Amino acid sequence: MSLAGKVAIVTGSGQGLGLAYAQELAQQGAAVVINDVDEQTARNAVASIENDGGKAVASVAPVGSSETARQLVAAAVDNFGRLDILVNNAGVLRDKVLWKMTDDDFDAVINVHLRGTFTCVREAAMKFREQGEGGRIICIGSPTGQRGNFGQTNYAAAKAGIVGMVRTWAMELAKAEVTVNAVIPVAATAMTETVPFFKDFVEAAARGDEMPPFARRALGFGNPSDVAGVVAFLASDAAAKISGQAVGAGGDRLALWSHPEEVSTAFQNGGWDYETLTEDFDSLFGGDLQTVGQRMPEPPAEKKEAKK
Question: Which residues are catalytic?
Answer without folding.
Answer: 155
